[in-house]
Design goal:
There is one protein chain. By secondary structure, the protein is mainly β. It has two domains: about 170 residues, no CATH class; about 100 residues, no CATH class. About 10% of the residues lie in helices and about 45% in strands. The chain contains three helices and 18 strands. It has an eight-stranded antiparallel beta barrel. An eight-stranded antiparallel beta barrel has the order 9-10-11-12-14-15-16-17. Helix 2 packs antiparallel against helix 3. The radius of gyration is 19 Å and the shape is globular. The two termini are about 25 Å apart.
Length: about 300
Amino acid sequence: MKKLHVHPLAVAALLAASMFALTFVSCENDDDDDDDSGSSGSSVTLPASKGTNEFSGKTWRDSCGGTDGGSAVIAYTASTATLTSTYTEGGETSTTVATYNYSYDSESKLLYLALTKESSTYGGETYTWSSANEFKSVASKAGESGDELAKDVAEKAVEFAAKRVFKYTISGSTLTLTDYFDGTLPTLADFYARPSSLDIDTHDGGFEFDGESRYYLYPSFSAGVFSGTLYQRIWNDDGEKTYKAVGTASGTYTTSGTGTSGSTITLTFTALPDGVSDVTKDTAYTLTQRADESQMFTQQ
């Protein structure tokens, strides 16, 4: 399970802030490749709240400690949640504040969140965005451009389009959250498949395909059909990682099951860019939901 926390790096600081807010990353620095347009704020419709609001007016904290590590504090009003994450690496500290609308079902013990706004502070500079369009403007001013920027904006658009769902328990002063799949896409729950010579994983609301080459797809989803630009990870002449748009990938999808483990997503590509051989058309790829470890928070 990727735990609640934001992972920063210079220009990547504001990019990673967007990817990791409420993506529950571990306190350790992991080597993921994390770091459309959307209207301002969230366009996600959350289920109506049911039962007793067990969150309003409360604040919980998860802290990792150590020289290089992070902490996360999430505070709830009656209808919004504010997540403040800090991360320190190599003596540099970043702070990100993310705001979410939320609803709940206290009978089923489900918590739903939709991202509405983020701000990231790094090196004395603060960046703020409330949509993929605003994120694109901020990232451009910070030096992002070309296909790398397009990939990050596509990733951000999916994040603003996704609702985050958790199964929760509250015992005394301890809040425990576990990723929950409600059967809809995009999802930030963790799914994977391991067909021959290929690793497929969900990645910040999209998908990562790791074979002879590594590709990322952050598609739109509608009525059983997905479509988006496929980005290939490449290395430039300076040995730095970047991304190249290779064309449009589209196809059909189905989902099966709901819960904290065992649900599935099946993707079948009907169109792929020329030269992409790791993934093939008309092949059904079924991803299975991981049973992630839960994350615990202590009420302040």
